[in-house]
Write a structure and sequence with these properties.
Pfam families: PBP_like_2. It comes from Flavobacterium swingsii. Keywords: Signal. The protein is an alpha/beta fold. It folds into 2 domains: 119 residues, Periplasmic binding protein-like II (D-Maltodextrin-Binding Protein, domain 2), CATH 3.40.190.10; 135 residues, Periplasmic binding protein-like II (D-Maltodextrin-Binding Protein, domain 2), CATH 3.40.190.10. The strands form 2 sheets. Strands 1, 2, 3, 4, 6, 7, 8, 9, 12 and 13 form a 10-stranded mixed beta sheet that branches. A 3-stranded mixed beta sheet has the order 5-10-11. A hairpin with a 6-residue loop joins strand 10 and strand 11. The longest helix is centred in the first third of the chain and has 28 residues.
Amino acid sequence: MRKTSLLVLISCLFVVVFSCDKKSKNQEEETILKGKVTILVDETLLPVIEDQKQVFENQYNATITLVGKSESEIVQLLSKNKQQLAILSRELTTNEAEIFKIKKIIPKITPLATDAIAFISHKNNNDTIIDLEKVITFVQGKNQSDFKGLVFDNPNSSTVRYIKELAKINVLPKEKIFSFQTNNEVIQFVAKNEGMVGIVGVNWLSQPSPIMRETIEDVKVLSVKSLKTGTFVKPSQDHIASGLYPLTREIKMLNYQPFPGLGMGFASFVAGEIGQRIILKSGLVPAKIPNRNIKIRKEINKK
């Protein structure tokens, strides 16, 4: 009996030591500036985050795998603790973050930028403006003659969630509503179908991939009539920054890693001087405006 108990005790100690050693090795392999990590990214925000990844990997001994998914898919993976890092346009609710609360993991939330949702139409359409109030009544199932059709990226995307919250509805109408999987598919569909109105993340228009540059030329960005001011505003960088454009959202890094890892390092990089300059160049609005150093010269060099 004593021999059996001793063997059980030794086995338990072995498991504990092995687990601690494995966890310790994993943490040693991944620091804030080196190692490998996977980050889930809201698909509507992917282009600018891909730029950040390239610069970060060039500067540090790190490999970051970005996985673009719909907002609902990302939230589901986070809430089940299958992933710990994500870039979204919202934070998790109390219920969604319950598993991390049980494990006493306090999330590190880092604001990165301000994004916008844009409406696009075929370049041959006469209208260059769109009334947000009409969009709301349309998705509420009223005034179905206002649009030939609205085109979304994904039924589970942050864009769909944003519009549903704006219209205070739980389900979109079935008629004249189209959805695909990606923002590029929306742009391609609108570019080939006159009368359709697409709804995409503005980052996909300001930073098109090489294969999409010609397609972008076949669509135009619409000015949106604000519910508050009644003025028509385009989703330009200055209008997003000033708050004049009515469809903006804050991009955040959600970090649920239980130790200081690459998630912390990447978030700090994007929120830092270099990362914020990349945000500024992308057409989005940085969370913090990068510093500009002005040199005053007494003489002008004519050479």
